[in-house]
């Protein structure tokens, strides 16, 4: 097999990124079908411009096509588990955007079906494929920093999402921090044992009225003894603030923000750098192509991809432990959530 036949479910913002990468940056795939629940004139024009031959509202065209070997799921969260299960039963490899689901029992049921049918599943935590964070991870795995002791993650959005989104997002720990749970696990190379989280409404009272917080911090304890500190905010007025540090027994690895260019302006008054990227598309656009190429390579080489279903489950467990910790103002062990 030198090419993978692919079908994509979902042509919204993330779906379009994956589709464009498949068509423009990956040479060892063939995109056969794109399915979306709603096809309007704008989507039709975009599909025509991209050269998509088959745009449909009928997702069965993907599951029932025996030539399609892999399904990329970029639809709404509430459809992920169903589509993963259907793809698994159709014996197709699966790439699915996070999360698998927001219900633990539903995730476990889905992973059981994936295992039963013996298909490959990758969950889209794209930040693992950012070149800077990958380099930090390599420093950990190679022993350059020694045994990880403290991991620090700063993840701050430039502005809050709409309140209507907040109401259905599942909360900051599941919606926003889930990327940071995954990054902390990735860098620690260990599983989370315990979470202590706190939060406040410091930006917009309407977020509190919607049942969420807009500013949060968390402390994680890992099975290997390492600890992590994570800070989140829905509003950093200066841009999309994304930093990772791993401090270990013999050294430290740090990934700072990347400015939009490397130019420094020197004047009598000050020294300036230009701004950091505004949001996630600008900051992580290359990582989306890298993760998709990795997934396709795993299929071509018959290798099991990561992050996988286990990672998807663990990150949701950490998110729920964090929510419980915040609500009860105490540290929560992951075993409490798993045994609920």
In short:
The protein has 13 helices and 15 strands. With 340 residues, the protein is α/β, with parallel strands linked by helices. The protein has two domains: 4-119, NAD(P)-binding Rossmann-like Domain (Rossmann fold); 128-284 and 315-338, Dihydrodipicolinate Reductase, domain 2 (2-Layer Sandwich), CATH 3.30.360.
Give a structural overview:
The chain has 340 residues and is of the alpha/beta class. It folds into two domains: 4-119, NAD(P)-binding Rossmann-like Domain (Rossmann fold), CATH 3.40.50.720; 128-284 and 315-338, Dihydrodipicolinate Reductase, domain 2. The protein is built from 13 helices and 15 strands. It has helices at 13-24, 41-50, 60-63, 80-89, 104-117, 131-141, 163-168, 172-175, 178-188, 205-209, 280-300, 309-328, 334-338, and strands at 4-9, 29-35, 55-56, 70-73, 93-97, 121-124, 148-156, 192-200, 215-222, 227-233, 241-248, 252-255, 264-266, 271-273, 332-333. Helix 6 runs parallel beside helix 9 and helix 9 (178-188) crosses helix 12. The longest helix has 21 residues, at 280-300. The model has no long low-confidence stretch (mean pLDDT 95).
